[in-house]
Design goal:
The protein has 179 residues and is α/β, with parallel strands linked by helices. The protein folds into two domains: 2-56, no CATH class; 64-172, Nucleotidyltransferase, domain 5 (2-Layer Sandwich). It has helices spanning 2-7, 9-15, 27-39, 42-56, 131-134, and strands at residues 64-73, 90-94, 97-109, 115-122, 141-144, 163-166. Strands 1, 2, 3, 4, 5 and 6 form a six-stranded mixed β-sheet that branches. Strand 3 and strand 4 form a beta hairpin. The longest helix has 15 residues, at 42-56. The chain starts with a helix and ends in a 13-residue tail after the last strand.
Length: 179
């Protein structure tokens, strides 16, 4: 740490040492300070305070992820130089509507709304296929729509230690009593 203070302007600014006015603390002083922090369990309290500030400012990934996919339409026309459709794009049916294009699969931090992962595929690739690529690995809970039903049973999810919150399919939801 002592060497880092002398070598790096960024470290000096972080610890508040101006070498024009004072010398850097020596290794013994830094060690005593570290032991003082550990003895009084201040490192854990500092960690909690820093994480709270980062979370409040939306700069820290939380323990939850929301995954979803959206179709990006492309012109299905073959009126181009090659008289062909783009080979990377395909058609898919959503509801009663047909679409041609690609699909963006997105992983978002559940707390802050920050996007932390994105993959693209042809539109006909099922949402559930890209789930593993959308997780950052530290989440405890994953939220998803009905397109991800059965994701916990997939082979690539065997090691995932998460709680899955998957929305029910419309057909499985019983009609709510009007009373």
């Amino acid at each position: 740490m002592e060497d880092a203070i002398y070598d790096s302007q960024a470290v000096r600014a972080f610890v508040g040492v101006d070498l024009a006015r004072e010398s850097a603390p020596d290794a013994i002083t830094l060690l005593k300070f570290r032991r003082l922090l550990e003895t009084n369990e201040l490192t854990q309290r500092m960690f909690i305070a820093i994480n709270a500030t980062l979370t409040e400012k939306g700069l820290l990934m939380g323990s939850g992820t929301i995954v979803d996919a959206t179709i990006i339409n492309a012109p299905p026309s073959t009126k181009n130089a090659e008289h062909k459709r783009d080979a990377d794009m395909h058609q898919t049916k959503k509801g009663n509507q047909w679409y041609f294009g690609m699909k963006a699969h997105i992983g978002v931090d559940a707390e802050s709304g920050l996007v932390h992962s994105l993959t693209t595929t042809a539109a006909n690739v099922a949402d559930i296929v890209e789930t593993a690529a959308l997780l950052h690995g530290d989440e405890e809970t994953v939220f998803a729509d009905a397109g991800y039903t059965g994701v916990a049973k997939r082979e690539e999810m065997n090691d995932a230690k998460v709680q899955w919150q998957i929305a029910a399919k419309r057909g499985t939801i019983k009609k709510v009593n009007e009373k």
